[in-house]
Specification:
Blueprint (H helix, E strand, L loop, with lengths): L23 E2 L5 E2 L4 H9 L13 H18 L1 H13 L4 H17 L6 H7 L6 H13 L5 H14 L2 H7 L6 H8 L6 H14 L11 H10 L3 H7 L5 H7 L4 H8 L5 H7 L5 H6 L1 H7 L3 H12 L1 H7 L3 H10 L6 H11 L9 E7 L16 H15 L2 E7 L3 E3 L8 H5 L10 H8 L5 E6 L22 E5 L15 E5 L8 H6 L9
Parallel strand pairs: 3-4, 3-6, 6-7, 7-8
Antiparallel strand pairs: 1-2, 4-5
Helix pairs in contact: 1-2, 2-3, 2-4, 3-4, 3-5, 4-5, 4-6, 5-7, 7-9, 9-10, 18-21, 20-21
InterPro entries: TROVE2 (IPR040322), TROVE_dom (IPR008858), TROVE_dom_sf (IPR037214), vWFA_dom_sf (IPR036465)
Family: Belongs to the Ro 60 kDa family.
Protein name: TROVE domain-containing protein
């Protein structure tokens, strides 16, 4: 028996809405449900690694669809688009998609001669000091060197907020250097010291930055370190004040590695670890092991990695912990990575009653998320599906493709261990998996790309589930047509590569509207 009032779930609304009847086909021939423009854009945005092909869409087609959707929404509701872009950058961690959305939204509005909101749309996408240059590089590549006033002003707003001595040290690279950006958008400095920084960035870009102003203390300290003879540099690591000296000079682990030259020793890592960022530590666990970092130092690193507050502030996507777990060679990182992954899934609710969780392991899910990553949509689906099953009161966890099979797990197990039990199951026979495993569950959750196989009868995947029972689809790729209706009653679709979507389920089951997450 269900442990909550089913009748309250039937009228809830959610943000991603579709037509109530199919009007197209999925890529594998099942009935396809078209979504409204905002819904299609949202689902594509939260999964769109710009310039990357997916199983069913090449990069050019996918990017063109994204630009078209952005342009339409920019004309209809620029405030909504600005909120989405800011959320996409800050909470969803989609840097490239937010930059492209801001640029294309502004261009669409300029072509329609629409004022107001354009400057704010640009600024919403820029949160890291290399991103003003990224946006200008994209704009020049698409639309030429002429910069409209709203683009200049939006980028200038971001420059004043983001350009510091330390960001100059770390991010002054690429075709559009800090000096180029400053000369193009003419930002007004917030302080005299920032004015010195702007002038120095321009001088440095043009090869005349030898004289560093007195106000730029970090850059002056860095210059002193760079002037040390190579044979004296490693000796600095043995000084008791080494950590402070390196930090005062804004030396990141990347720049320090180049400064020292040669193999990176345990002493190197032990000195630089206190100043390393969270993601840098996560990416370098294997390097720490290979350098022979002591267990005492490793314990301090593990404490930082597993601290829930640091996990939340880092906004590292859950799949990165899986990537780190697969990359490390020492078991000493297994427990802290488990704790960190668990903390990163803080939005996953402990659902009451009985829950059927179906995880798509079809061939189309095994394309890499980006050219620089070994992770796949199948990995993400396994992580999220396992987390939901482990936290639920009573869950059935199933993997499906052409066939289907239960995935065993025990309460209290690590998500990382459960993920190892998933396989590659071929096609996408979602309907058959639902029919075979639905047994009066209180809800069904399907983690998938929605490109269901049409089968012999073109059956909708959730047809075997009574209308009174909620079915939640979590779309991880963002193709155009979904495998079922969404937005009202008991059928709802969410999207993205973070855990934020799961927070919508308890809202809907309380009879509340689950609006956009921004």
């Amino acid at each position: 028996m269900a442990k909550f009032n089913r009748s309250r779930m039937t009228g809830a609304l959610s943000a991603v809405t579709s037509r109530r009847a199919p009007g197209a086909r999925t890529h594998e021939g099942a009935p396809g449900y078209a979504r409204d423009t905002k819904s299609e854009l949202f689902l594509l945005s939260v999964a769109n690694m710009v310039g990357e092909r997916t199983f069913y869409e090449d990069a050019g087609d996918r990017d063109a669809r994204f630009r078209t959707l952005v342009g339409e929404v920019a004309l209809a509701d620029v405030d909504w688009l600005t909120r989405m872009v800011g959320w996409l950058r800050d909470s969803a961690g989609m840097r490239s998609a937010s930059v492209v959305a801001a640029a294309e939204g502004v261009m669409s509005r300029l072509c329609a001669e629409m004022d107001g909101g354009n400057r704010q749309l640009v600024a919403a996408a820029l949160r890291r000091a290399d991103e003003p240059g990224e946006l200008l590089a994209y704009w020049h590549g698409r639309y030429g060197r002429s910069l409209p006033s709203p683009v200049k002003r939006g980028v200038a707003d971001a420059v004043r907020r983001l350009y510091t001595e330390r960001s100059l040290v770390k991010y002054d690279t690429g075709d559009f250097r800090f000096g180029d950006v400053i000369e193009l958008v003419h930002p007004r400095p917030e302080t005299p010291a920032q004015g010195d920084l702007f002038r120095h960035a321009i001088d440095r870009r043009h090869g005349r930055g030898e004289e560093i102003p007195e106000s730029l203390t970090v850059l002056r300290a860095r210059a002193r370190l760079l002037a040390l003879p190579p044979d004296e540099r490693r000796a600095l690591l043995d000084r008791p004040d080494a950590e402070r000296v390196l930090a005062d000079a804004g030396m990141t682990w990347e720049s320090l590695a180049g400064w020292l030259g040669g193999p990176l020793s345990a002493a190197f890592w032990e000195r630089i670890i206190p100043s390393m960022g969270y993601l840098a530590l996560l990416r370098n666990l294997r390097n720490l092991d290979r350098a022979g970092v002591s267990d005492e130092v490793a314990e301090r690193v593990a404490a930082r990695l597993s601290d829930p507050g640091r996990v939340a502030r880092s906004r590292v996507l859950p799949m990165r912990y899986l990537a780190a777990y697969r990359a490390v060679e020492s078991l000493r990182w297994a427990w802290p990575l488990h704790q960190a992954l668990d903390a990163s899934l803080g939005n996953v609710p402990a659902l009451p009653g009985r829950t059927l969780v179906l995880v798509d392991r079809s061939g189309s899910m095994f394309g890499r998320m980006s050219a620089r990553s070994e992770l796949t949509s199948a990995d993400a689906a396994a992580v999220f599906g396992s987390a939901l099953a482990l936290r639920a009161e009573d869950a059935t966890l199933v993997q499906f493709g052409t066939g289907h099979a239960p995935v065993p797990f025990r309460r209290g197990e690590s998500v990382l261990k459960v993920v190892e039990r998933f396989g590659d199951l071929g096609g996408t026979n979602t309907a058959a998996a639902v029919r075979a495993h639905y047994r009066d569950h209180d809800r069904v959750v399907i983690v998938t790309d929605e490109q269901a196989w049409g089968g012999h009868h073109g059956e909708e995947p959730a047809k075997a589930v009574p209308e009174r029972v909620p079915v939640y689809t979590w779309n991880l790729v963002g193709y155009r047509h979904g495998h079922g209706p969404s937005g009202a009653g008991t059928r709802h679709t969410f999207g993205g590569l973070s855990d934020a979507a799961f927070a919508m389920i308890p809202l809907i089951e309380r009879g509340a509207a689950a609006d956009w997450p921004f």
